[in-house]
Amino acid sequence: MIQLSKNYSLPERQEEPIPIKVVGVGSAGSNALDRVLLDGMDKDDLIAVNTDVQSLASSVAARKVQLGRSSTHGLGTGGDPDLGYQAAIESADEIRQAIAGARMIFICAGLGGGTGSGAAPIVAQLAREAGSLVIAFATLPFSFEGKRRAAQAQDALSRLNDIANGVICFENDRMGDMVSPKAGIHQAFGVADMTISQSVRSIVNLIQRPGLIRIGFDDLFAALRSQNGRCLFGFGESDTDNRAHDALTQALKNPLMDKGRMLSESAHVLVQVAGGPGMTLSEVEILMRELGRHVRDHTQIVFGTAVDGKMGNRLSVTIISSLASEDSIATQ
What we know:
Blueprint: E1 2-4, E2 20-25, H1 26-38, E3 46-50, H2 53-57, E4 63-66, H3 81-90, H4 92-99, E5 104-110, H5 115-129, E6 133-140, H6 147-163, E7 166-171, H7 172-176, H8 185-208, E8 213-215, H9 217-224, E9 231-238, H10 243-252, E10 266-275, H11 281-292, E11 300-307, E12 315-323, H12 326-331
Parallel strand pairs: 2-3, 2-5, 3-4, 5-6, 6-7, 10-11
Antiparallel strand pairs: 1-8, 9-12, 10-12
């Protein structure tokens, strides 16, 4: 549902925030938490969940859950998703306590290994049982990591897609395209962490920021709903003289967007444009007209806009969508 605030003015005080937790599952998930904290999320909202006690000890999260004390003895899973699954089941009560009270839970995990692939779907299931809305951010392994790891990742992605309200999937091969071939390998993995953090913060702002046209949870999950687990995400921000155009260009450069070409396969596209008090209707029209060139006539666009005094002269655009199945594309 889109709620239109007819008598809108800049809020004098911030509305009560929605209780949110960000759960990093496995070592890749913990690395993502480091970036999320660096980008401004509250440390108290972060939870690290892992079988590897050394990785857990170095996590920045305020709350830490060691999985499978009896089954893994703090040594990890050796890349075995079944062991990761068993460890999560063993520690289910601790996970429930850690996520208690959160209305919305973001799960960050690298798929293909043991803890991320095995435990992330269990964390998602426990969160859904607790009544929370769940969005999973999952990274898929590089192709050079082998067919077995890729198969384990796809199996875990399928299970996450069945459980979570929405899944945003990041392919490491695409993330690698954002860095120079001569760049250090840590930069390639760092790009994935940065993109996940950006995604989390954008969705938090989308839900919590008061808006002239507000986007509801049902709109968000309709945009994320996908039969094949593949979602699109883009975020751009600019304070230039041509900030509407520049913000959209930046959003479409996200590797998940393929420069906007993949939007032509989308059935639903959610767009939020936010800016300071100086944002004009003309700027919004320019941005949406340019975006319209990348979508088909039958695509349903859900639009929201918000004015936030904290943004100053900046204008931002968030684009979220899911890819339609091949059958539906062929039918259309």
